[in-house]
Structure formats: C-alpha cells, structure tokens
Batch of 2 targets.
Target 1
Amino acid sequence: MSILQGKQILLGVTGGIAAYKAALLTRELMKEGAVVKVAMTENATRFIAPLTFQTLTASAVAVDTFSAPEEWEIGHISLAEWARLMVIAPATANFIGKIAGGIADDLLTTCIMAAQAPVLVCPAMNTNMYRNRIVQDNIHRLTEYGYSVMEPDAGELACGAEGPGRLPTVEGIIEEAASILTEKDLRGHCIIVTAGPTREALDPVRFISNHSSGKMGYALALMARRRGARVILISGPTDLAAPRGLTFIPVSTAMEMKDCVMENLKEATIIIKAAAVADYRPLFSASQKIKKQDGTLSLELVRNPDIISEIAELKGNRIVVGFAMETENLVENAERKLKAKGMDLIVANDLNMAGAGFRTDTNIVKIIDSAGTITALPLMDKRDVADRILSRARELFDERRQ
Ligand code: C5P
C-alpha cells in the first residue's frame, strides 16, 4: 500500500508555465490514494483554470484570502491545519522569495506561514532566474528553515533556454512526498544494493545477459532511501531511471560490479545483492565483430567470481542478503545457497509462479534466515516486498550489535 494512501495533501500551485503539470500531479497523487486539495495564487489561475483542479479533486479550489470558499471559516488556517503535507508545484522565483522573506499576502502564502505540516517546494523557472544568487540564497534559507526544496530537472525549458529549471517529474515529486512522510528507521545505515543483469561481451556488438529488469533492486534502493539510509545502488544496464537522492553507479560486467561493491564495502552496514550476475563470461572478448562462418561456433566460457561469497568472507558485522531465483526445489536450493555463500538472509523467488520474478511489478517470495526460519510472503508489490526485506535485515543487524 502506498504511504500516501489517505494522506491529506494541500497542493499549492503558483504562476509559472509549469502550472499545467500540476494537473497531472494531482491525478497521480490521487491515484496513490492521497486526499488532495488545491490552493492557487492569483497568477496561477492565468495559466490553468481552478475548474480543472476542482473537477479533478471534486473539491473547492482556494484562491483568494478574501473570497475563500464558504466551507472554510478562516480559509488559510483551516487549510493549514487540515494538511499533513504541503506540496508547492510549481514554485516560482517570486513565490520562493515571498516565503523566504516572510511575506504572507495571499491565501497560499498565509497557508504556508500557518503550516504545521512539512512543506515540499518544487521550483520551476527560467535557468537564469534559477541561477540568480538571490533565488539561490532564498532556496538556501528555506532549507535552513526546514522546508524540503527539490532540485529542478535540467533540459529544454518552455522559454527556449537549456539548463536547470524544469519542474521535477511527477514521479520524482511523488517519491519525494512519500519520502517526507516515511519514518526514518534506517537513518545511520549505509546500504549497498546491486540490481539488474550484467552483460558479458562476446565482441563489440554482442553479449551474454539475462532477463533481469532491475525492478526488485531499484525498489529496495528506493525504500531504503525513503527510510533514511544512505544508499549506493550499483546497477547493471536496465531501462529504469536512476532514482534521485542516492549514489548511483552504473556498471556492465560482473567484474566491474565486483570491483565496485568491494570499493564501497567498508562503509556499508547492509549489502543486498539483488543483481542477476552472469555466472560465466567469454574467455575471450573479440575486439572486432565476430564474422559468421560455415558450421558451428563454440564459445569458451569461464566462471565469474561469486561476488556475494567474497563479500561474506569480509563482512564482519555487516548483514549480507542474497536472492535465489529457481525453477525447481526452491527452498532446498535457497537454503543450500545461503549456507554455501555465507549469507545472513536469502530471498527466494519461484520463477514458476505468476506475479513473481523478472519484469513484473509484483513478487512472491520467501525470506529465509541462517537459523532456517522461513517467512512466506503473499503476492505483493515489489516495494512492499522491499520494505519487508529491509526490516528483516535491520532486525538482524540490531541483534548482531547487542
Ligand atoms: O547462485 P546464484 O547465482 O543463483 O545466487 C544468487 C545470488 O548470488 C544473488 O544474490 C546474486 O546477486 C549473487 N551472485 C553474486 N555473484 C555471482 C552470482 C550470483 O553475487 N557471480
């Protein structure tokens, strides 16, 4: 279940061209189960009609302090008390300057002044405006006051300029909102997650790989970050966007992945190996494209290092979590692997079950610890599975520290 389910969110829309994107944000927040109310500045209503938000949220849109909808006795105070989170998207340079300067001259600024809930500010403006020292100082001041301010995305802007200033993506804003509302029970942890497949080159155009999508590993990284951990995500090639707010290290081969894990091992408290590492690589990788010939072609393969076993030897107090993906004898194979590789937990996936394994957004897993305790989870979203794995790893870490 989404952390945003049932959460009362006040979305503040200010007067920039990205205001139209706030309609999509409203939709997506509501899809996550949030209860959304919208407040707009007068200028925002020139870019997008209050009726759009009123229709989407089935709720009156607050614009002006002096003509606030009747249901609000004192509009800004009751809205401010109602909200569990305020999201300002887009936040213009003018609006950021106003809140940084303590100005409260309309409904939205007064709401923010009266806010008890956390406030997430999502700037969107022309690149030169964003880089302006006054704007930067104001953003800095807001963060010092405890507001969360997202970095805008970089790219082509509506005004034709290139650079930072685009409103962060809807997914990015929702992720930040979810993160703000999540209890930080992994603060102080540094978690390495490996994800995705590896690619072992045969020649410059061909490789050996597998169907891993990286979704389970990315879900683990995302949830660990939400829960306050410092996260290092070491990922083979996937179609997924690199999540914000964590150290993202793209790799290609198993050897690169191993080097990268080893380099970062010292800092880690928990290592989760969700990557589907190729067990073999070609003995030779041709420098030029291999030409086809008559008859058969034999490839000589050599074993890749088993990264997780090498980590386990050096782990000390760290918790090592591995995955097992099997097509037969799941539990027996997983238990054997857990022992042989010196893991603390193994997450067993049955590839034969619908809704489990590669490419899906859901998974059906069994979490097995080194004492042989098996926790069988039902069909769940990969993010919920991730939460359960992280909680179990944290418990083991705490037990080991005592
Ligand atoms: O033996 P198997 O490859 O099925 O084990 C899976 C687990 O071992 C996964 O956690 C995977 O990330 C890890 N692994 C590894 N290095 C390898 C192969 C697998 O760390 N070369």
Note: The pocket of cytidine-5'-monophosphate is lined by residues 194, 254, 273, 275, 277, 279, 304, 306-308, 322-324, 337 (CB under 6 Å).
Target 2
Amino acid sequence: MSEHLPPLREVIKSHELQAKKAFGQNFLLDLNLTGKIARVAGDISDSVIYEVGPGPGGLTRGLLSNGAKRVVAVEMDQRCIPALNQVSEAFENRLAVHQGDAMKSDELELLNLAPNETARIASNLPYNVGTALFVKWLTLEKWQPWYASLTLMFQQEVAERIVAKPNTKAYGRLSVLAQWRGNVRIAMRVPAAAFTPPPKVSSAIIHFEPTEPLDANVQLNELEKVVERAFGQRRKMLRASLKGLGVNAHTLLENANIDPTSRAEDLTVKQFVELALHYQKMRA
Ligand code: SAM
C-alpha cells in the first residue's frame, strides 16, 4: 500500500540519491505539492501517464495517488531505479520504470496503450533537456498527437515564453509553436524553495492541450523556417530578417498581407501561419 512508503527524504538517504547537477536534478519532496501538480493534469483515471525523470518518485506518487490508471516512467539515473521499483510495488505495479534517455525514447512503444486508454504526459522536467523534449512533443508529424495533454514544469522564464502573446519580449519561437498546436496556460507557479536543492530561479507548471491546426495545409518544417528566420533577428523589420528564406521577402510579405516594416514580435500566430502558407506557395 502507498501509505507504507517512507517519506521522500528517507528514500533519498537510504538510496543515496543526492542530487547531481549533470542530470538536472532538483527534487520535489512535499507530497502535498506533487499531489497538487498531479491534479493540474485533470481527471486521469482513464489515463496512462508518461513521466520523464521521476527521480525519487515524488510526482510519480502524486500521479498514482490521484488515480492514474498507469504511469510509465523513463529515468536516466540508474541510482533511482530501486527506489522507483518500491513505488511500483506499493501501487500494485501500476508504475513501469524504464532506465534510459527520454530524448531517445519511443514513447508509444513504452506506453503500449490499450484501445480504451488515453495517454498524457506529466513531468518535472530536467532543465537541461526540458525545452528540447517539449519541442519534440510539439513537432510530431502526426497531429492530433498520441497524447491528450502535457503538464510540465519549466523554469518560469521558459514557461512565460511558451504562453507569451505578441508584442512582448517573451514572445518567440516557442510561443508560436505551442500556440499554433494547442491551448496552453501557466497553471501554477512553484518557488525555488520547494525543490531540493533549490535552483537559482523560480519554476512554473504549464498545461497544454493539443487542438486542430489553424490551417491543415501548413507544413511544420516551412512554418519552423519562417519563424526561426523572423525571430533570429527579432529587432529587424521582417523585410530584412526574412531575406535568407530563398524567396523575395517583400513579395512574400505582400502576398501574406503583412506590413513589411513590422517585426517578428508584432505578428500573431495566425499571421505566421499565413506567412508559411504563402512561403510554401512561392516555393512550389
Ligand atoms: N520528478 C522528480 C521530482 O519532481 O522530484 C525529479 C525531477 S528532476 C528536475 C529531473 C529528473 O530527470 C531527474 O531525476 C533526472 O535524473 C532525470 N533526467 C535527466 N535527464 C534525463 C533524460 N534525458 N531522460 C530521462 N530522465 C532524465
């Protein structure tokens, strides 16, 4: 039974899980807090949760206690595996743990979903690969994706970039990509003191739900090219920053009905989609 599990501080002591920087380890040891984070994921009773980096298992316990049907976790640090196996035993084997690198994992193969199961991702992400994993899950070719939601911890500054609106400093590639593919919000802020050891900056949980694309004809790689160019030189006017795209930047902007003197951060996500569509047309 889950109540037989020792407090997380004891788990860390007995399994010698002192945090290592190289693994991006900042642990959450307060089970009230991890329960709260798990609840951000919503009703998870029919869901299989894919968790990256369970560490000593704080969030994992939160997810299982909140009724997740199963949790499939990928943890890079070998030292955590015995502690996680104990969590699995305490929760009637609803937890499956895989040792490995989430950047290289095939999530669907690990999840092995039954037809009636919904997949969701929940993770207190390691800071060193957090953004790369988020981009991996946002840029899947097949959309709708295999997951129903993402509930992810980021450094607050990254979370703010993800939800940023046009005409703000934080608005950029991550905002456009995330808001192109779904609805996203900051669900919770988490102070540095909640972690062991505390990181230098505060963190925040974002909750993302995929939606139908704004325009089904737009190709991901073309949108990415346009967005990357535009924000690569964000202070420049678009007629200059889009020059390297291999088409006449002025004509492209005119076709998309966008003022050539505007800058990347002036454009809405919808306008970026327009740009990408016309870019595709001009290159066809
Ligand atoms: N979920 C735990 C918690 O909330 O206390 C730990 C979170 S800690 C910020 C990040 C975890 O991700 C660590 O346990 C670390 O070992 C693991 N990790 C780091 N890089 C990873 C990778 N590429 N693949 C899988 N796990 C990774």
Note: The first strand starts at residue 27 and ends at 28.
